[in-house]
Amino acid sequence: MTNRWGVPCFVAHLWSDDLPVVCSGSGAHLDPAIALSRALSEAAQTRLTVITGTRDDVDEVVYATGRRRFEAPPKTSDPVSWSTATAPFTTAFDDIDRELDWLCGLVRDETGGEPALVDLSTAADFSVVKVLAEHLDFRLDIPFYPEEAAS
To answer: Which of 43, 51, 99, 134 is the most buried (most CB within 10 A)?
Structure first.
């Protein structure tokens, strides 16, 4: 999936006949393999969440067998090789501080301000952070759904 910064970003959609609902996930990282792994992991986690019924915001029609038949989602693009998909991504860092400086610079150039990090960690072994970037809007450079491309 393209984006204005050129950071590798993938979206994965999982679907099967036994539970015919589209489960999606996305992931971004400067290493394309990690970005793809995140997208696949998130899509799998979404599917497992639907299967186990642990969310109350999943429409009940998903679980009602025989009441509604979902169609397989259309392909959004033709398959490409891994080397073709990852060729544009050449930015790599061997130092996390340099990587963060570069990413913060992209945000600064877009918004005029530095992103803020809030550390929500409760233990040394488990890190949780929230990153806030004022005036950074979400927009896609390409249509997410094929029907949007036609309009």
So the answer is: 43
Task: Flag residues of the chain having pLDDT under 50.
Answer: 67, 142-151
- What's CA 24's distance to the chain center, in Å? 8
List phi, psi (to 5°) of 14.
-110, 140
Q: What is the pLDDT of residue 142?
A: 47
- Range(s) of the domain holding residue 126: 93-150
Among the candidates 40, 57, 90, a domain finishes at: 90
Q: Which of 36, 47, 45, 34 is nearest to 12 (CA)?
A: 36
Clarify whether residues 22 and 72 are in a common domain: yes
pTM here is 0.72
Reading the block at residue 137, the tokens are: 């809007």
Distance of CA 115 to the CA centre of its chain: 20
- Distance between CA atoms of residues 134 and 138, nearest Å: 12
Residues paired with residue 26 on neighbouring β-strands, in sequence order: 11
